[in-house]
């Protein structure tokens, strides 16, 4: 029910467990082709998505004020896929039966229905609702501007007056890159506002005055602390963003869907029951809520907090923390390195 990114990932995980010829997948979606989107994931290689990789980096850059830091990844990499590149792998591997229609209820003959339609029922409704919104340009420059080995994860050297704002750069070669203006705030911006930030960043930080915009990407991802109900009926489970698998403070979803699919299918193979894998420990909810409150109430501190996080801690521990895979001991070390006051104030706010 829904044939977007999550549906394709769960189908690939099922194929990797049972073999593509042993599964029978039907996707019901009113859109023949879901919108393409750039999808990035960090971590160990994902064999089932090897042919979907568009680019890969092992060095990350961060920028703030008049400084930058560059960090090498040793055990993991940062990889770029897209909704289309993942769908192409599915179409080559699995004989998916696609029905172009809205879906309102599971097919009665299905063994299990995985539902990525937006959710209406919540175990906990949102207490905070912000949005991560972005607009990016895929540009080709006249001269060499980029180091194709170094992706820029967050560069805060951009105007912070209308929300927490950073630029994200995925370089494909010395003269081609996706340069994206990303904002955490209450509302999306007009396109002209992102464009103004991009023009200034490309001129002042990248020192580039001659380039063509080859394509654009605009998107918005909810940043909220709601916990959706995933069990929609017997053998009928929510997946993807509708299942709350989008990390509220980062928007990253793909890796969480893959882990969820693996646990769900392995659980079924072990017990014969389709059930929802347990959520990460509740303390990760609290961390997300604290940061969301700081973004909402004290956005002026956020760029410094994130810069300090990356400046003072090993990057691979931070990436595991964002993936909710760290130990409490590692989290205490991370928080110890940060300016405390905004977190203490956020603890007592609602
Ligand atoms: C521009 C953009 C960039 C992103 N980049 C990243 C990234 O780099 N890394 C990352 O991890 N995450 C990223 N995300 C977040 C997340 O990975 C994506 O939103 C992803 O598409 C979520 O997959 P999904 O299947 O849950 O939702 P979708 O891909 O949106 O799929 C939901 C599907 O449900 C269908 N549908 C809706 N109503 C019905 C109905 N009644 N019947 C049947 N079908 C229905 C829709 O047509 C749609 O195809 C990004 C999101 C956006 C918007």
Summarize the structure.
With 350 residues, this protein is an alpha+beta fold. The chain is built from nine helices and 17 strands. A hairpin with a 2-residue loop joins strand 12 and strand 13 (176-185).
Summary tags:
350 residues; alpha+beta; D-Amino Acid Oxidase, Chain A, domain 2; 7-stranded mixed β-sheet; 3-stranded antiparallel β-sheet; 9 helices; globular; binds flavin-adenine dinucleotide
Give the SSE layout.
Elements lengths: L4 H14 L7 E4 L8 E6 L11 E3 L1 E6 L2 E6 L4 E6 H11 L3 E4 L12 E3 L6 E3 L4 E13 L8 E6 L8 E10 L2 E10 L5 H14 L6 E14 L2 E2 L2 E3 L2 E3 L15 H18 L10 H16 L4 H11 L2 H8 L5 H9 L4 H7 L3
Parallel strand pairs: 1-7, 4-11, 8-17
Antiparallel strand pairs: 2-6, 3-6, 4-5, 9-15, 10-13, 10-14, 11-12, 12-13, 16-17
Flavin-adenine dinucleotide binds next to helix 1, strand 1, strand 2 and strand 14.
């Amino acid at each position: 029910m829904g044939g977007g990114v999550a549906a394709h990932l769960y189908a690939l995980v099922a194929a990797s467990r049972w073999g593509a010829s042993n599964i029978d997948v039907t996707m019901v979606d009113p859109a023949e082709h879901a919108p393409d989107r750039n999808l990035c994931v960090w971590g160990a290689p994902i064999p089932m998505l090897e042919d979907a990789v568009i680019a890969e980096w092992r060095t990350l850059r961060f920028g703030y004020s008049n400084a930058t830091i560059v960090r090498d990844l040793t055990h993991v990499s940062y990889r770029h896929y897209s909704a289309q590149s993942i769908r192409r792998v599915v179409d080559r591997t699995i004989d998916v039966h696609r029905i172009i229609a809205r879906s309102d209820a599971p097919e009665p003959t299905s063994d299990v229905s995985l539902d990525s339609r937006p959710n209406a029922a919540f175990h906990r409704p949102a207490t905070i609702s912000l949005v991560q919104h972005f607009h990016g340009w895929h540009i080709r420059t006249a001269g060499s501007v980029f180091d194709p080995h170094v992706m820029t994860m967050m560069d805060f050297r951009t105007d912070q007056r209308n929300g927490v704002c950073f630029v994200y750069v995925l370089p494909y070669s010395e003269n081609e890159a996706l340069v994206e203006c990303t904002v955490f705030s209450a509302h999306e911006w007009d396109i002209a506002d992102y464009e103004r930030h991009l023009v200034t960043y490309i001129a002042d930080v990248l020192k580039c005055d001659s380039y063509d915009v080859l394509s654009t990407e605009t998107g918005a991802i909810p940043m909220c602390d709601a916990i959706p109900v995933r069990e929609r009926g017997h053998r009928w489970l929510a997946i993807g963003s509708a299942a709350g698998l989008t990390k509220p403070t980062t928007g990253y979803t793909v890796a969480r869907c893959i882990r969820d699919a693996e646990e769900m299918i392995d659980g079924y193979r072990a017990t014969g029951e389709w059930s929802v894998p347990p959520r990460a420990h509740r303390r990760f909810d609290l961390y997300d809520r604290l940061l969301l409150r700081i973004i909402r109430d004290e956005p002026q501190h956020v760029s410094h907090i994130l810069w300090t996080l990356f400046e003072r801690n090993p990057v691979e521990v931070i990436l595991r923390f964002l993936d909710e895979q760290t130990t409490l001991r590692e989290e205490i070390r991370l928080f110890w390195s940060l300016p405390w006051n905004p977190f203490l104030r956020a603890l007592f706010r609602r």
